[in-house]
Each structure stands twice: as C-alpha cells, then as structure tokens.
Specification:
homodimer; alpha/beta; 11 helices; binds 3-isopropylmalic acid; 3-isopropylmalate dehydrogenase (chains A, B); 3-isopropylmalate dehydrogenase activity (chains A, B); EC 1.1.1.85 (chains A, B); IsoPropMal-DH-like_dom (chains A, B)
C-alpha cells in the first residue's frame, strides 16, 4: 500500500518548485499524490484562501508537501499547521559547500513551538487608542516540544540543546516555557543551555557553531530561524517540517518570490530538501539520505539557478538532482 | 550653569567603563556629576536593585549615564526607562574601520518603541497549565515614536525609514503600530518601507546597506538591534539612548561581562560613545562629534582591548581617546 501525499503548489514559485520536488519523490518511492489548492489564486476564484476541502484532505493525509502562498500566507499556513496537529516546526539551517554564505560554518536546527505564543492570536481592540494581544504559553505544549527535542538530540547523537527565551522580561510566560522545557530535559538526562532571545541573535552571528539544536517559542523560532537563513545565504535553501503526532506538512521556508515567478528559474533545492524531510517522516531514511546527498552534490558543483549566481533553470537543476540519485 | 548628569556605574564592567566615559565628559565640558546606585551589588546590601532615591535622582536629572546591571538588569533598566519617560530607545549599530565585523558595511540606527509591547508586562497565571501575557500597543505611543523618527531622518538627511512589524500575524496590535507609524510619516512627507520582522532578520544579514533608520516595536527592536550588534562584531561597541521628552538615559548595549569584570581590561568604547550621545542630547553637538571622532580614530589604529584582539587595558584606551580629542 502506498502512502498518500497531499501536494499543494500554492502561488508563485510554489507552482515551479513543488512539481520539481514531486518528480524527485516519484523517482525514489511509490506514493499516491493528491493535489489540493490553497493561496491567493484559489482565493481569487472562490473567495477562500484555504478551502475546507483542502483543510480536510491535509488533515486526513499521511503527509503534505506545500509550496508557498502569497498575500494569504498567514491564512493558509497557520490553519494548515493546525490541520496536521503540528506541535513543532523543524527548521534546519545549514550552509552548503559551494554556496556563498555569511557564515559558512552554520549548521543548526531550530525546533520551534508551533501552536501558541503570540500566534494563539487573541487580539482585542479595547479603545480607539489601544489594542491588546494575549500571548499564550502552556506547560503542556512546552513539554510536548521538549519531549520531541529530547528524542531529536538522542537520534542525532547530540548531548543536549539550547533553550531560547526572554524570561527576564516575560517572566511568567517564558518562565513557564523555560521551566517546562528544562524539566523535561533534566528528566531525560539531556543537557540544556539557556540563551536569551536577544543574546542569541548576537551570538549566532559571531559564532554559529556555539549552537546545534535550538528550542524556541513560536515567534522567536520564526525570527531566529530566518536570521540563520540570512547567515547561510538566504531563504532559498531552507526546508522545514511542521510535525504533528501522526501527520506532518513540509514546506520550503521561502515565499512565492513574485519577482521571478512564472519564469521557471526558481531554485528547487529547498522544496526538494523539504521532500527529503517528508521521506524521513514516512520512514524512508535511506531514500531521504539519497535525495539530500544528490541535492548537496548539485549545490557543490552542479548547475545552479540565478539566486546562487548561475544561469540554469529549475528544470536543469531538478534534472541534475534526479541524475545524481543513487 | 552646568548641567547635572547622574552617573550609575552598576555592576561588573560598568564600574570600569563608566568612569572612563566620565573622564571623557570632563575633558570636553563642565558638568556636575551625581553618583547613584543600582544593580546586583546594591541589592545585596539593601535588598533593592533600584533604590527609590536612585529612581528619583534619575527622574529629576538632565541626563543619566548608566553602565550595566547583572542579574537584576531588568529590575533596574526597565523602571529607569520609565523614570526618564523614555518613549524611544535609539540604538545605532555601525561597523568601524579597523574592527573585524561579519558585515563591515553595516550602518544602521534602530528606533525602538520603549514603553509597551510585551514589555508592558501584564502577565497572568491562569491555571496550572496556562499563563498569558497581554501585549499592549497604542496609537499614541506609536505616533510618538513615528514623530521622533520623522524628525530624526530629517536631521540626518535621510529620505525615510523602514518600519518593522509582524502584522501578518499580530494583525490588530502590529497592524495598529504599522498604521500609526505610516500615517504620521505620510503626514510629514517621509517615506516608509514596511518589512516583516522575520524578513528583516534574513535581509539584514544578506545586505545591511538596504536599511538605515529602522523603526520597531519594543521586542523587535531588542532582538534586531542585538542581531545588528552581531553583524558589526559584538555588543562591545554599541551605545544607546533612552530618550524622553526632556530627560534621557544613556547606556552601552553590553552587559556586565562577568568573565572579565574587575580586571580593568573592558573596552570603554560603547560607554564613551554613549557619553557622546548624551552630549548630543544636551545640545553639545561639536563636543559629541569630537568624542566620536576620537573613539573612531583609536578604534582604527590606537591601542585596543582584548575583545578587539589587542592587549591594552581600559585605562590605556581611555587615555588614547582623551589624547586624540581636538
Ligand atoms: C507566513 C507567516 C504566517 C509564517 C509565520 O510567521 O510562521 C512564516 O513567516 C513562516 O515562518 O512560516
Ligand atoms: C535587560 C533587558 C531587560 C533589556 C531589554 O530587554 O530591553 C536589554 O536586553 C536591553 O536591550 O537593554
């Protein structure tokens, strides 16, 4: 029986890089692909950026590969994270040999809380002058994330992880987050190092090798993983996984790139690396490794798209990856 | 009549770099210095990190020069910002010729909202599992910041500024912030560019010259200015000003540096550059420029402290700055 993978191209270069990633998945496995729609284009047609049908399809699938959405990004991706029950957003940020990077020694993974913090989104307009947002932190979500982090570092053979927070200011909420995460880690015999969110931003620029697995609240994970993207040369190469208990959604960290959309010149690497994370999630570790190695090899000395200083198109890069699969 | 400047050394290297900055102020002007205490040390003695007397002295002064506080940093600096009625935290982040930097072309100023956001600090423990924090955004504080930003860019001869926010997620609160800031700028004929907080983190690493004056909510300003500190080589060189309607507090962005505190080897540059901002604030523009030029000259080819790869001590660097004053 083949697994069902939902495929949502979305908008912009999502329509170019997702088909590239699907062709790689087809080359290494036997999957059933189910197409679904979300984003600006479907909103223009139907009035809804995320049709209920798409939500349900994603919720029922084994895994989803998502491209990008334009103006409607938040209306699409935040509910889709809920659809897969995702409690952690896994964001590896590493530099690749052969690719220009501000900090070529960067090799980090962010484990971002994916359900609460400021994203819980209770906002109120209290007066003409004043609005509030209720930031939510629970011990249960923090523990859940920490349990995942402990398993993750054990699998990777790391001793421990860093916990980012701003508990010197958000004493009750980030204090709760920090305590819950540190407690779980202590119970599991996993080491932790606490780093204030602002200090992390300075230190990661000065020396990213100080960090390996970085556990963060939701917004901190959003901003600091994008910072790490800057250090490795841009969003173009970063995959991500929104992981839930028995479902997950994979997406390149980049957006729709309206400046180049439609020209067939987008870099498919982040989408293909997201497909590799999807393979890992479905238990195809060898296939995942095969794909990653092929992408790395192409990045090192294969054809490259304009964002990496080359003039190859999406198709040529994808063909090179397919060609270098084992 | 000479202005009254309150001096708070605080803890750690604050006790070394503040006297250095005071000696520079003494060399260029005629000020009355009033010493006050705050931080870990005074807390150990008296039980209070910020004695009421210190608060009142700062509130009544023309300006304050503050060093650093240790564990008690938040208990000291947040109320002191209130004491001077500070609505904006001005944080220049620039690289200096002669100093190693990840991005030597960085030359930015952050104008950070200094009264609200998550720092407004209404936190509640709602159950054993759940805590909340109420993030506060007002049109009035946002407008106030924007008015300052408009004056600032006009004085500096810039066309406009960047507005950082995360209004795609915090629609009501950061939407209010963005709208208020953009409206004020439009009214003043000042250009604005909106940048999402996460996108800013990526883009500033890739090319900091895209930005000049960056207007941010409180926490965004905290994290993104520390990120810029990483790009220019660390916190060691960054001054800052907490500006209120007719009072202000100046502080190096660095902390107490417990690893080197007491050894007399701390880099006094950030404290001296903070003193230069203080001179500007008091209307001594020529003296401020004189101090800045001397610091830059020493950074370029003078004696340097260990953090910049040298072996000079605080005294030698301070003497060199004094020596190079016009
Ligand atoms: C589009 C936006 C809502 C989203 C987020 O803030 O999580 C994006 O920045 C991301 O990181 O996936
Ligand atoms: C010490 C802390 C409360 C403070 C802040 O978060 O504002 C510090 O990080 C700063 O930026 O001055």
């Amino acid at each position: 029986m083949s697994e069902e993978i939902v495929v949502i191209e979305g908008d912009g270069i999502g329509r170019e890089v997702v088909p590239a990633a699907v062709s790689v998945l087809e080359a290494v496995g036997d999957f059933e692909f189910v197409e679904a729609e979300a984003g600006d284009a479907v909103k223009e047609e139907t009035g809804e950026a995320l049709p209920q049908e798409t939500y349900d399809t994603v919720a029922d699938a084994d895994a989803t590969l998502f491209g990008a959405a334009g103006e409607t990004a938040a209306d699409v991706i935040l509910p889709l994270r809920t659809a897969v029950g995702s409690f952690v957003n896994v964001r590896p940020a590493r530099a690749y040999p052969g690719v220009d990077a501000v900090r070529p020694e960067t090799d980090l993974v962010f484990l971002r809380e994916n359900t609460e913090g400021v994203y819980a989104g209770h906002e109120d307009r209290l007066s003409d002058d004043l609005s509030t947002l209720t930031r939510v932190v629970t011990t249960s979500a923090s523990e859940r994330l920490a349990e995942y982090a402990c398993e993750y570092v054990e699998e990777q053979g790391n001793d421990g992880f860093q916990v980012v927070h701003k508990a010197n200011v958000m004493r009750e909420t980030d204090g709760r987050f920090r305590d819950a995460v540190v407690d779980v880690a202590e119970g599991a015999g996993v080491e932790t190092e606490e780093v204030l969110m602002d200090a992390f931003a300075t230190r990661v620029c000065l020396d990213p090798t100080q960090f390996d697995v970085v556990v963060c609240p939701n917004l901190a994970g959003d901003v600091l993983s994008d910072l790490a993207a800057g250090l490795v040369g841009g969003l173009g190469l970063l995959p991500s996984a929104n992981v839930g208990p028995d479902n997950a959604l994979f997406e390149p960290v980049h957006g729709t790139a309206p400046d180049i959309a439609g020209e067939g010149v987008a870099n498919p690497s982040a989408a293909i690396l997201s497909a590799a994370m999807l393979l890992d999630h479905l238990g195809y570790a060898d296939e995942a490794e095969n794909v990653r190695t092929a992408v790395e090899s192409v990045l090192e000395d294969g054809p490259r798209t304009a964002d990496l200083g080359g003039d190859a198109d999406t198709e040529a890069v994808t063909a090179a990856v397919l060609d270098r699969l084992d």
